[in-house]
Amino acid sequence: MGIRSRRAVLALCAVSAVSVALSSGTAVHAHEIGTTRVSVVFHEGRTQGSAPTSGRSYDIEIVTDATALVEKVEASTGGSPRPDTSPHHLQSLLTGFDETFRRRVKIAFDGSDARPGIAYSVAPGVDATSPAVATIRLSGPIPPDARHFTWTYAWTFASYAMTVRSGASGNLVTEWLEGGQSSSPVALTSSAPPVSRLATAWRYLTLGFTHIVPGGLDHVLFVLGIYLLSGRARAVLWQVSAFTVAHSITLGLSMYGLVSVPPRIVEPLIALSIAYVAIENIFRSELKSWRVALVFAFGLLHGMGFAGALKELGLPRSEFVTALLTFNAGVEAGQLAVIGAAFAIVGWHCANRAWYRSRIVVPASVLIACTAVYWTIERLAMGG
Amino acid sequence: MSPRSSASMFRRLGMLIVVAAMNGASLAAHDMWIDPTTFSPQSGQIVGVRLRVGQDLLGDPIPRDPALINQFVFEDEAGRKPLIGRDGADPAGFLRVAMPGLLVIGYRSNASAVELTPEKFNQYLKEEGLDAVAALRAHRHETGAKAREIFSRCAKSLVLSGSASDKQGDRPLGFPLELVAEKNPYAISDGQDLPVRLTYENRPLAGALVVAMNRLNPSEKLTARTDSDGRVRFRLRAGGMWLIKAVHMVPAPAGSNADWASFWASLTFERRAANANGN
Can you say whether the dihedral through the CA atoms of B62, B65, B68, B72 is positive or negative? Predict the structure, then answer.
C-alpha cells in the first residue's frame, strides 16, 4: 500500500469514527484516535510472501508512526531516544528490537498464543511535514482446528481500528480497540474449508456433550439434584422431560435473537436454581406437580446459559439449524450420561435401601446446595 | 552515588513506569500535550503542531479530528488565529510565524466519554491527586462502583521566535482548565522559579496537584499543590522540553450521561541550554 493511500485510510478512519459518534447518540463523544491501524486477513491456503502451505494462514499488517513506536520500544528496554530519525535507521532499530516488540503483541487461536514471522519496514512520510511510517507484517499458519482468533496490541496509547477480512467470505469487519485491549474473538469458521453436514452434526453433538461432561459442573449438579429427589424412574422421567423441553425452547429462541437476558442475570439464577433443587431434596422425597413446573422454569434459565456457551463457540451460517439441533442433542446425551452414571453408581444398588436418603441423598444434596450457594454469591459479585 | 549513575537509575525507574503504563497495569489515564515540530522557529517559518497522547512524554500522534476540536488556535502580538490542517493528518495543525515573539498555541477538545472499572478509576484518582473526588465517592459508598466519565483536553504550548525577554508572556486562552506561565519560561535564568497559575472557569483553582516533567528524564517529576491563588512554583533546572500538567474533576452536568467530568490541562515549552543548568 502506498503512503498516499495509507494517509487516505487514516483520514477515513478518523472520519468514520466521527460518523459513528454522530450516529450513535445525541452528544458527540468522539475518542482520541491515533494513526495506528491494523488489518487482518485470513487466507485459505497460503501466506503472502512465503512458501505455500496446505492449511489456512493469516497476514496482519500494522501501520503506525515509526518514531513514536521506536521511542516506546527503546524506552521499555531502558534506552534513551536517539536523534537519528531517518527511515533506514528506524527500520534497523525496529528489526533489532524484534523480541521486545513481540512482548506487547499477542496473536491467539482459541486462547493459545501463536508466534508469527515478523517483517519490519519504515518508509518516509508523504511530504516533509509528515512522519515516517512503519509497516509491520506478521504472518503464519492458522492451527488446523482453530475456531477463534484474538488480537492484542499494547504499543499504542490511543484508540485504533482493527479490520478483519476473511479470504473465504470477503466480509470486512472493523473493531475499535484501545492500546492493550484484546479484541473480541473473531470466528474463523467462515474461512474454514467446507465441512459436510454430517461432520458439522458430529462436531456440535460432541460440543454439546462436552459442554455438560466434563465442561459444565453446574449443569451436572442440577441434573444430579433432579435425580436425587426420588428413586422412582417416573419422577426422574417427568423432571428430565420438563427440563429438556424448557431448555430447548430458550436455547432456540436465544440463538435466533428472540430472547436475550444478560449473563450477569442468567448465571447467578442458574446457580440459585441448583441450590433450590438440592435444598428441596433435603426436605422432600416425593415428586409434586409444582416441582415439575419449577424444573421447567429452571430449564428455561439453563437454556439461556447453553445459548451463551453456543454463541461463544460460534455457529456456521450455512449449517445453523443442524448445529443448533445437534448441540442440543449433545446436551441431552450429556445429561443422560450423568443420570446413567448416578444410577449405575448409587441408584441400582442403593435406591431401595432404608439408608439411601440419610446416607446418600441428604449429604449429596447438602454438598450440592453449599456449592451452588457459593456459586450464586461468586457470580453475583463478578456480575456487579 | 554520582550524578551520572543517579540519573541512570532514575531513567531506568522511569522505563519501568513506561513498561507498566504500556501494560495498562499501573497508570489508568493518559496525558495529552502539544509537541510542536520546533520550539524555536524563525520568523516566516511554518511550524507543525503535533498532538500527542501518552505517558511520561512517550506518546502517540493524534491526527486532526474535526469532531474533537473545540478550539485549535495560536496567538501572537497581532491576535488569535485558527490553526489550519488537513483532517486525519499528523501534524494536526500548522502555523506560520509572522513576527518574532512568544506564540501561545492552544488546543481545547470536545468531551470524550469513557467508562472505567472501579479499580482503574480509583487508581487514576490516586495518580492524578484527585483526593476530593475519591473522598466524595467513599462518602457516597461508590468506591466499588464503576465510573462513567467525560474528559476534555486543554493543552497549550509556548513557542519562541527570536530572542527572549521578560516582557513576553503566556496569555490565558479562556479554556475551562488552564495553566498559565506567569513568567516567560524562555527568559527565566538559573536559580529562578517559574510561577504557574492554574485556573478553572477563569478563577484560581486551589489545592490541585500540578506535575512538571522533562523529556529527557520524565520519571523525575516535580510536583506541587496549588496555593489559595491557584499558583505553584517550579525550579526547572534541566534544558529541553518540559511538560506541566494538571487534572481537575467535577460531577458531570445533568444530561451528559456520565458521573464525572474531567479537564486535562497541559503546558509545554523548551528550556534552552543557555538558560538551563543541565542535569
Answer: positive
Contact A65 B23 (CB under 8 A): no
- At A213 the three-state DSSP class reads coil
Q: Cell numbers at residue A114, please?
A: 501463536
Pick A34's closest partner by Cβ from B24, B61, B150.
B61
Look up the ipTM and state it.
0.82
CB B150 within 8 A of CB B252: yes
Substitution target in B60, B90, B141, B216 with the highest count of A β-carbons within 10 Å is: B60
CB contact under 8 A, A32 and B68: yes
Cα-based angle A350, A351, A354 (whole degrees, multiple of 5)? 80
Retrieve residue A327's grid coordinates: 448441540
Residue A2: CB atoms within 10 A of its CB come to: 9
Provide the 3-class DSSP secondary structure of residue A162. strand
pTM of the predicted model over 0.80:
no
pLDDT tens per residue across span B155-207: 999 999 999 988 899 999 999 999 999 999 999 988 899 999 999 999 999 99
Q: For residues A150-169, b (16+ Cβ closer than 10 Å) or e, as one string? A: bbebbbbbbbbbbbbbbbbe
| Amino acid type, A79 | G
Q: How distant is the Cα of A16 from the closest Cα of chain B, in angstroms?
A: 11
Contact B237, B279 (CB under 8 A): yes
Cβ neighbors of A321 (< 8 A, separation 6 or more) are none
Residue A10 CA to residue B32 CA, distance in Å, equals 20
Q: Is A14 on the interface with B (CB under 8 A)?
A: yes
Q: Which three cell numbers stand for residue B53?
A: 497522547
Task: List the single residue in B18, B59, B91 with the smallest CB-CB distance to A68.
Answer: B59
**Gyration radius (Cα) of chain A, Å:** 27
**C-alpha cell of A347?**
441408584
Residue A158 near chain B (CB below 8 Å): yes
Burial of residue A261 (CB within 10 Å: 0-12, 13-18, 19+) is middle
Residues of A in contact with B256 (CB under 8 A): 27
Pull the grid cell for residue A233: 424412574
